[in-house]
Amino acid sequence: MKNTIRKILICSGSMLIGAAVILCIYNMIQDRKANNRSQEVMSELIELIPETKASTSADTMKNPADDLFSRYDIDDRVADVGPTVNINGTDYCGYIFLPTLKLKLPVIDKWSYDSLNISPCRFSGSANGKDLIIAAHNFSSHFGHIDELKIGDSLSFYDADGNVFDYEVAELNILDSKDSSGMFYGKSEQWQITLFTCNISGTKRIAVRGCIIDK
């Protein structure tokens, strides 16, 4: 009887280990595919965007998000908030550059779960409106390491018209997955850009807030 139980436990353990290995391999494959897709777009996007211009300022505009969080409802939604470049049928509003992480990634203008498999997406707002929120999967080639950014690190957003907006990291927040309002307001309302992704388990969201650098 003991031998039978031991064999069952060994067999069950082996199956669990095997499942974990398969899941790990699957995630690695998805990560690699996402990296390849985003970098293919990145090369074409840089050529299509005009030569970068000096950072511009604009009055804050109301531009609420499409609702990623089903518990959060916003009125007066705005669909068109800035210039875009179309590549293979997808509109891109620009690209994000994170020097510390050595990442340069295209940003799709309108988010969807399918689009997040290609590159980060504009979830809400705009650079001109000083309320830009960009979402991405936690692939290592996308936003999987944004929790390693430090206060004062620089980041830049280049819009489709060639305008460049330079920021520095001001806050790093860990939010509960149900805290939808926290994504928009955070601990401070002084930020002008937010980058966010989920943790591995999907129970938390990592949000990096940035303030524009005055020149």
Walk me through this protein's architecture:
It is a single chain. A hairpin with a 5-residue loop joins β8 and β9 (204-212). The chain is 25% helix and 28% strand. It is globular and about 75 Å long. It has a single domain (2-212), classed as Sortase (Sortase, Chain: A). Strands 1, 2, 3, 4, 5, 6, 7, 8 and 9 form a nine-stranded mixed sheet that branches. With 215 residues, the protein is of the alpha+beta class. The chain has two helices and nine strands. It has helices at residues 2-48, 180-185; strands at 85-87, 90-98, 103-108, 121-124, 132-135, 154-159, 164-176, 193-198, 204-212. Residues 56-79 have low confidence and may be disordered. The chain starts with a helix and ends with a strand.
Strand and helix map with partners:
Layout: H1 2-48, E1 85-87, E2 90-98, E3 103-108, E4 121-124, E5 132-135, E6 154-159, E7 164-176, H2 180-185, E8 193-198, E9 204-212
Parallel strand pairs: 5-8
Antiparallel strand pairs: 1-2, 2-3, 2-6, 4-5, 6-7, 7-9, 8-9
Summarize this, please?
With about 220 residues, this protein is of the alpha+beta class.
Shape: globular
Computed over alpha carbons, the radius of gyration is 20 Å
List the secondary-structure elements in sequence, H or E: HEEEEEEEHEE
CATH architecture: Beta Barrel
Instruction: Label the structural class.
Output: alpha+beta
CATH H level: which superfamily? Sortase
Proportion of helical residues: 10-25%
When the domains are counted, the total is 1
Give the integer mean of the pLDDT values: 77
Poorly predicted parts = 56-79
